[in-house]
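Hi support team,

I submitted a single chain yesterday and got back a structure, but I'm not sure I'm reading the C-alpha cell output correctly. Could someone confirm the output below corresponds to the sequence I sent? I've pasted both exactly as they appear in my results page.

Thanks,
R.
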Amino acid sequence: MLSLYHRIQKIESLQKAADKEVKLCKSHTGLACLQHCARCCSYEDITASPAEFLPFAWHAWRVGLLDQWFDELDRHDSNICLFARFSEGEWGCRIYPSRGMICRLFGFAATTDKNGRPLFAACRPVKQSNPQIVQDVADYLAKGGKMPVIASYYRKLSAIEPGLGNEMMPINQAIKKALEVIYFHFAYRECA
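Hi R., thanks for writing in. Yes, this is the structure output for that exact sequence:
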C-alpha cells in the first residue's frame, strides 16, 4: 500500500488532470463562470469526500495552519463552505489552489446518459444567463469534444483512497475529516 504522502501526490495529480481537462474545454467552448458569482459555493447541500481535501489538509499542516482551520471549522455554524467568500472585493474561495474535486468540476463537467455519452452539467446561473454557451458545449460534446466526467474522477479518487474517497458528507465535515486524518498521521509519527 502506498504511503499517505504518495496517495496525496496521486490525488494532486488527479486534480491537475481535472484542471487541465476543464481548461481545454473552456478554451474550445468559451465556457466561464459569471463574474463575481460564486453561487455554487453558497449552496448548503454541497457534498464532498474527505479524500479530495487531503492535499489541502497536508498543505495546512505544512504551513502551520491545521489547528487554526480545524478550530474555524469547529466554530463555523453554517452548512455553507467555510472557505467561500461573498463580500465585495473578496469573491470566491480562500483555498482556491487546494480546493476539492467537486469545486474543480462543478459547472465545468459532465454526467453521462444511459449509453455513456457525456451530458454537460451546467450550473443554473450559466443556464439562465447564457443558454447559447450551454448549447455550444452540448454541440462540442456531440462532435467528440472532451469534458471531465464527474463520476469518472470520483471513481479514480476512490481507487487512490478507497475508504475516504467513497465517503460522501457535507463539505465542511469532509474538510474537517481530512484535517483530522493529517493531524493523527503526524501525531502518531511523533509518538512512535
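A quick pointer for reading it: The chain has one domain: 4-187. Let us know if anything else looks off.

Best,
Support desk
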